[in-house]
Design goal:
The structure holds 3 protein chains of 3 kinds. By secondary structure, chain A is an alpha/beta fold. Chain A has 8 helices and 9 strands. Classes of the chains: A alpha/beta, B mainly alpha, C mainly alpha.
Chain lengths: 249, 284, 266
């Protein structure tokens, strides 16, 4: 672990071009992205649709590979088992194994995170309770509503106390109560010293939970914002940044 | 429509309509009738292709094709008294394809041999098939029995026939076929041999239709055998051959002239052999 | 290994949750009802014909169901991006491939055993009734092993295609193609040795030879007729066929793993 400088995520100069299918032009999705996230920090990536947020996350997870540049997670390369044992991920629009029931699914994830026996059972129960799904544990996931899927997704992201939680639009599809719950969960894990990396369109939420924000646009990071130093709303900063960028091009 | 019962009723009506469509429309338009229908038979690709297009289901294919042939011959038998000449080709082709698909499958040898010998007189092809069967399943002594019968009865090759009967006896462990083989070498006992072999075949046949066919044949042969014995008695008694069957009856050797189950009539030829006008196939 | 088992377990669970499992079991019971009909369709050696039917049915049902399952599960994994999520879990990428493989093979194992166990009493009954055409029940279950190897090989091929392409339709045709070629190559090679085959253009012969050495020879696992009639199979060649299947499966699986390690999962 790169405990030297305390960085959990180090992304340096990554570029990613999607080759596309046979007759499609290659598409340059990320252009020279660099940032790092400290241990215990809550880091937000914001940007318009198609800016490259999810692509960045997938590279950090080691699901796809950058064309150039380097990524270090907890001092190791992404995709290594050692790393994956300590991180968790909630996809945007998650689709989990649909014919499993919620409980079996959470159990499966918990086991992979190293939980066993009674601890596993207790944790599964605790997390189902925390996301208000204690009554739906036996239902197959394909019968879950969109928001219930999001809730089970949050539960699987937090079970087993990962060191880094990566959430791609975690507040998607949740009702107001659910959003409050999700925010509370994130804040709770932050108090435990967990690092959180997430994306969202809802700047209001970002402002509340994040320590630091990066604004990404067309595959470039335009600005880093320290939330506690903000003198105006995040929304204004965001829009101004994009406008400045459009003008300079 | 709205009530549960209403919907159930509609579902029922639709199911009935489905059955009705099957019942009323499936037949007359697409299917030919009578002889025309009977004369159509499936087309085969070359046996090798039939085999590889069967993947791992060649056994099913062999079974299905054989069944198809049986159905076809069954339909023909409704229209024709004896298997018509044009049906020979389907039999031979089916046998070729099926023995390629699964050379161990018993039924096809049996069926092909039955039709080819008695109805089409193509004993060579029948024998070739049986030899092929023996290549794959040498323990099936019944093939030797067929071969023996074919050689002696149709080809009049008594020595070879006897040889096959001895084989049948050895492989099956049944001594009666060895006895028949030895009798075969004496001209006088031949009908008796044929009867003995037929009895063996009947014993080994499960299918009722085929069994009845063989029994008819047996009955005809028994008629001939009875008359042959009578001719012998007549010759011993009078020193000459009888001119016709009436003479045997008048001499009091037989009570009546047996009936040919194939609808022909028994007669005595110049050499004193008992024959029948039907030649042991159904007369049209 | 723990992670592989975990994935295998989830695969079996998914497979069992698919209704298709029960459908096959019911279909088998219905197929068993066809026994009396078959009995009157066949003239000789009834037990053998019945055994042939039962084995062909098992073969067919297991193949279809496994193809459906493997394709269905791979499809959701790929098209709905579940795969992205799964490989972000604390597993190695190869754990996914091995886990899926083991899960599918284990499920196929249960399936084969069930179908054979349901049909075997009938075959045994008729064998007893007609001792003139004996059929050995031991062979019946031994065939299950061969079928299992064939299914394992096809599952490995499906996983290989999963690593090669992101399109289920491609892998579906790929697996079907391997199946067809795998079952016909033996006959084609046989044909090459005949007179007509000898006179084929050199190019065609070369193509056939190449194809023959790349694709698996699945005909080796089709031992149904051999078992039913107790013909043309000695212990050694049976053993070699199994060994061939196992080796080929392992190689394909390793190839799948190597490709999957570097696959971009969109
Ligand atoms: N597999 C792919 N092939 C080609 N292009 C892709 C692929 N995945 C993403 N892209 C493109 O890369 C760009 C960035 O996509 P990405 O999913 O990272 O956006 P995002 O910032 O997450 O957007 P959103 O807020 O809508 O989730 C988009 O223009 C998208 O079309
Ligand atoms: Mg996104």
């Amino acid at each position: 672990m790169s405990a030297v400088n305390g960085n959990v995520v180090e992304v340096t100069n990554i570029c990613k071009t999607f080759k596309g299918d046979l007759f499609q032009k290659p598409f340059s999705a990320l252009k020279d992205i660099s940032f790092e996230i400290e241990k215990g920090e809550s880091f937000g990536l914001i940007g318009v649709n198609g800016a490259g947020k999810s692509t960045t996350i997938k590279i950090i997870l080691g699901v796809i590979f950058p064309d150039s540049g380097e990524v270090k997670i907890l001092g190791d390369s992404p995709g290594a088992l050692k790393v994956k044992k300590k991180i968790s991920y909630l996809p945007e629009n998650p689709v989990f194994y649909e014919n499993l029931n919620g409980e079996d699914f959470i159990k499966f994830v918990g086991r992979l995170r190293g939980l066993e026996g009674k601890v596993l059972r207790d944790e599964v129960e605790r997390w189902l309770f925390k996301v208000n799904l204690e009554k739906d544990g036996k239902k197959p996931l394909k019968k879950y509503s969109r928001g219930m899927i999001q809730r089970i997704g949050l539960a699987q992201a937090f079970i087993g106390n990962p060191e880094l939680v990566i959430l791609d639009e975690p507040l998607n599809g949740l009702d107001p109560l659910g959003r409050r719950m999700a925010r509370d969960l994130i804040e709770e894990t932050l108090r435990l010293g967990t690092t959180v990396f997430f994306t969202s369109h809802i700047l209001e939420d970002i402002e509340r939970i994040c320590h630091r924000v990066a604004i990404i646009h067309s595959g470039r990071i335009l600005r880093f914002v320290d939330v506690k130093d903000l003198k105006e709303g995040l929304e204004e900063v965001f829009i101004r940044t994009l406008e400045e960028y459009e003008e300079s091009n | 429509m709205k009530s549960k019962g209403g919907r159930l009723l509609i579902v029922l009506i639709l199911v009935l309509l489905m059955i009705g469509v099957n019942y009323f429309f499936d037949k007359p338009q697409v299917r030919l009738k009578g002889r025309e229908e009977a004369e159509r038979f499936r087309l085969y690709a070359n046996p090798s292709f039939e085999k590889w297009s069967g993947f791992e289901f060649t056994f099913l294919k062999a079974f299905y094709y054989t069944l198809g042939l049986r159905v076809y011959m069954g339909k023909l038998s409704e229209e024709y008294l004896a298997p018509p000449p044009f049906a020979k080709d389907p039999i031979v082709r089916t046998a070729e394809v099926v023995t390629r698909l699964c050379p161990y499958y018993y039924d096809i040898y049996y069926i092909a041999n039955g039709y080819l010998t008695w109805d089409y007189g193509d004993v060579e092809t029948a024998n070739r098939l049986l030899e092929k069967g023996l290549e794959y399943t040498p323990e099936r002594w019944i093939y030797y029995l067929y071969l023996g019968f074919n050689h002696f009865y149709f080809l009049k090759d008594y020595e070879k026939g006897a040889m096959y009967l001895v084989e049948a006896s050895e492989v099956s462990g049944k001594p009666q076929y060895a006895h028949l083989a030895s009798k075969l070498l004496y001209a006088s006992g031949r009908t008796e041999v044929a009867i003995g072999i037929l009895k063996g075949m009947i014993e080994n046949t499960r299918d009722e239709g085929w069994k009845r066919g063989l029994e008819t044949r047996l009955k005809a042969l028994e008629g001939i055998y009875e008359l042959e014995k009578a001719v012998e008695v007549f010759r011993e008694r009078f020193g000459t051959l009888p001119q016709n069957l009436e003479e045997l009856k008048n001499a009091g050797i037989i009570k009546g002239i047996p009936e040919d189950p194939y609808g022909g009539e028994f007669y005595i030829d110049e050499e004193g052999n008992v024959r029948t006008t039907s030649n042991l196939t159904y007369m049209d | 290994m723990k992670r592989v088992i975990e994935l295998a377990r989830i695969t079996v669970k998914q497979a069992i949750k698919e209704r298709s499992f029960y459908v096959i079991l019911i279909a088998t019971l219905l197929a068993v009802l066809a026994v009396p009909v078959l009995y009157s369709f066949t003239m000789f050696e009834v037990p053998r014909v019945l055994a042939g039917f039962a084995l062909s049915y098992t073969n067919f049902a297991v193949l279809i169901l496994m193809l459906f399952l493997v394709m269905n599960l791979s499809q959701t994994d790929l098209d709905r991006k579940t795969l992205q999520y799964v490989i972000s879990l604390p597993i190695r990428r190869r754990d996914y491939v091995f886990g899926r493989f083991l899960g599918f093979v284990f499920f196929a194992c249960i399936l084969i055993f069930f179908i054979l166990a349901i049909t075997v009493p009938f075959v045994a009954l008729f064998s007893r009734m007609r001792p003139d055409a004996p059929f050995y029940i031991g062979y019946y279950f031994l065939y299950g092993v061969f079928l299992l190897i064939e299914v394992a090989l096809l599952v490995a091929i499906a996983l290989l295609f999963l690593s090669l392409t992101s399109r289920t339709i491609v892998s579906m045709f790929g697996v079907a193609g391997c199946y067809i070629v795998g079952h016909t190559m033996d006959e084609v090679a046989e044909f090459l040795r005949t007179g007509t085959g000898m006179n084929m253009p050199v190019f065609s012969k070369a193509v056939i030879q190449v194809v023959r050495y790349i694709f698996p020879n699945l005909a080796l696992f089709d031992v149904k007729t051999a078992f039913i009639y107790g013909k043309g199979m000695d212990g050694m060649s049976l053993f070699l066929s199994l060994l061939y299947g196992v080796l080929y499966t392992v190689i394909v699986l390793l190839l799948a793993v190597v490709l999957f390690e570097k696959k971009e999962v969109y």
